[in-house]
Amino acid sequence: MRLRAEYDDPLEALVAGFGLFGYDDETIRASDENTTVDGAAYETDEAYVRAHLDEVWGHPGKEYPAEELWEKVPQLAYDLFPTAFTLDWKWHTFRVATLAERGLEHYGYATDVEFVTEENATSKYPSLSTAHPEAFYVLLKDATTGDELDRVAFRPPPAITDRDAVMNHYATAFAMNERLLKNRDVEIVELVGYPGDHTKFAVVETERLDELEEEYGDGCPLFGQELMNRDLALDALALYDPENASSHEDEFGVPEPDATFKLEDDASLLERHRQWKAEKERLQRKRARARRDSQESGAFSRLFDRLRELLG
Asked: Where are the domains of the chain?
């Protein structure tokens, strides 16, 4: 049952939806990534959400019809999801790991990144790069003590262009899930619906998400449409191109670290990608045939009409 069937007030339903993920009032009102509204200034979560609504749509105090407000709830959920973090499309993929700390700190974790060339990541790659993707370490730490809990060496898969490879945000998120977070009952998911020119992720509890999907369906359509995507593998390999692979040592003067995690080494993922690509090409051919048939049918219809005119 979707929350709309359980609540009369759309904003109350939104706050209840956040509560299903385990977020308390303080956490909900601290979700300030996509709003300038100060959550601490409001006594209730609903008032905070309403203030954000006024800010975004520019109609302070407007009384929205219930139906119109329900239509805005999925956008509000996307905007205000408490453990979310957003990447502009042109940001280097290592920033997935650094920005994930915004969500992971709720669960007691911190992150860091080290490139194998031992250069500072932020200064070396302030945005994108046209170089082949370089391997880097993602470190998971205790947010309180700063102690390192685990690390993984990761190199993004080769893509159609090097630029595509270093902006592959899904690949880093997938690697973190597989090698750092799998046994810690948290995972990174993609928030879906209103991406624009950026990619938005959130950190959620795996067990809670399993339970919510069992009750509400895949993607947690709490408000009538899919809220999140947890299967990041196909997006991570969407532009995969093995022909553009390169030697790490030739490119950067140092070899890849031992046990570097690379998606393209997983045969089952590559098979899924092959099947997805084949289905995509099949649908493209089908659409092309439909367009051609439509054009031919239109031409025949115009010829028939012309002949009918000539024959009187």
From this structure: 3-80, 84-261, 266-312
